[in-house]
Design goal:
Helix content is 70%, strand content 3%. The chain is mostly helical. It has a single domain, classed as Rhomboid-like (Rhomboid-like fold), CATH 1.20.1540.
């Protein structure tokens, strides 16, 4: 695949630590697994503990008045139910490993962890600012950060076939539909899903990778002009 070859060439052109090269050649991506494990443990604990949910969930007054700024991060480690958790963690499992592999070539394992954690915070900030005076608003879940990872993957592999509920679809096509749907639903404001966090997370994922490696933009455009459905 054109885009994959170009990305590999960019990685080879960088001077990275030999240990990072060995990871790029197929060693498991432990940071992704660790994030999934921690998120699952905290989420499962919260399923049975309403106080823990109350302490970790994003609730604007607790941040603006109570100075509990940790909630801008902690909300991303709890979920509404098992389905919510499963969908996010499966997505992170399949796409996080490649993004971890790529990011590690530039900023190492801690850099990837920082990318994921910062995506949790950045994706929720517009929602928090919009609802800063709304005591009825609450938000939870890793969807914003997972969107950052997913759209980072789309930037690297736009024509790769991904499966949405077992239906094959090019990653870039899914991305376009996902963005359009999220914008529409965010404007409708008719459900309990934070579509704004999905959108800002997606944008952050793309911008983070481009800031780290500007050559990706040219690689992405070149790949779009030469579709390769694999």
């Amino acid at each position: 695949m054109l885009c994959r070859r170009a990305v590999d060439a960019i990685l080879r052109s960088r001077r990275v630590h030999p240990r990072v090269r060995s990871i790029q050649s197929g060693t498991p991506m432990y940071a992704t697994y660790l994030i999934i494990a921690v998120t699952c443990v905290i989420s499962f604990l919260a399923f049975r503990n309403e106080k823990l949910i109350s302490d970790l969930i994003l609730w604007p007054p607790a941040i603006s008045r109570g100075k509990q700024y940790y909630r801008l991060l902690s909300y991303g480690f709890i979920h509404a139910d098992g389905q919510h958790l499963l969908f996010n963690m499966i997505t992170l499992f399949f796409f996080g490993r490649l993004i971890e592999q790529f990011v590690m070539g530039y900023v190492g394992t801690l850099g990837f962890v920082a990318f994921y954690l910062s995506a949790i915070v950045v994706s929720i900030l517009p929602t928090y600012m919009k609802n800063i005076g709304n005591p009825a608003y609450r938000s939870l879940g890793a969807s914003g950060a997972v969107s950052a990872v997913l759209f980072g993957f789309v930037l690297l592999q736009p024509w790769t076939t991904i499966y949405i509920f077992f239906i094959p679809c090019p990653a870039i096509v899914y991305a376009v539909v996902y963005i359009a749907y999220s914008i529409y639903m965010d404007r409708q404001n008719s459900d309990n899903i934070n579509h704004s966090a999905h959108l800002w997370g997606a944008a952050y994922g793309v911008l983070f990778l481009l800031a780290m490696e500007p050559r990706l933009f040219g690689v992405f455009l070149q790949a779009l002009l030469q579709p390769d459905f694999r």
